Amino acid sequence: MNECRRTPLRRSEQGGITILTALGLLVLLTVMVFSLGKNSIRELTITGTVWQAAKASEASEAGLDWFLLWTNKDNWANATSQDRDRLVAAFQQLNTTGTWQTSPYLLDSTKTWDRAAIVQSTEQSVGSDMVFSNTGADYLQASTGNTTLQSFDIVFRYLGDPTVGAVSGAAGGLGNTAGHTTGRTGRTSNLYQVQSRGKASVPTGSSSYIRYMTNRELYLTATP
Fold this sequence. Notes:
alpha+beta, 2 helices, 32% helix
């Protein structure tokens, strides 16, 4: 009877298998470390983007509140400084039949049929009430130490008289432009589309920024 005997592996063969196994484990470990690092970077990027988007959203909400406050006719007397002066001027011109087409605040001067105005902000503005005064560690970028600047632009469009044109006319008419001098007289209101463009800007130079933007929009009636 023939006997089959297994030949023991030579030391050189054993060493080769060990090296191959070690290399395989090293490659696997490298891939795992690279994958974890890539995921961490992705998570940090997502976290930063969400944070910036939240700041831009805060600015857009503030822009709508700002518009509602300073387009209220009862507050015009106090709009004597900063960018609210420009908003009131744009609002008044947009509602004036003879001058709105030449207003410097037109959204697009080539489209004079589009009764829309824009009031813009710049991050470098000092004392602007369209740019937040952001201080403290909560507004600093962890990577650069730069302050995130929040601001907003306002675009609003005249849409004409709403379906219900009367505020409180005594006989169901269009109201009285004299205002609320008696209990049953009102003022005609107009319909507007308002868009607030909130910005969270990270400085990358003396006058350059990475901007994160969020829009908020509303429709409202207001008395010019």
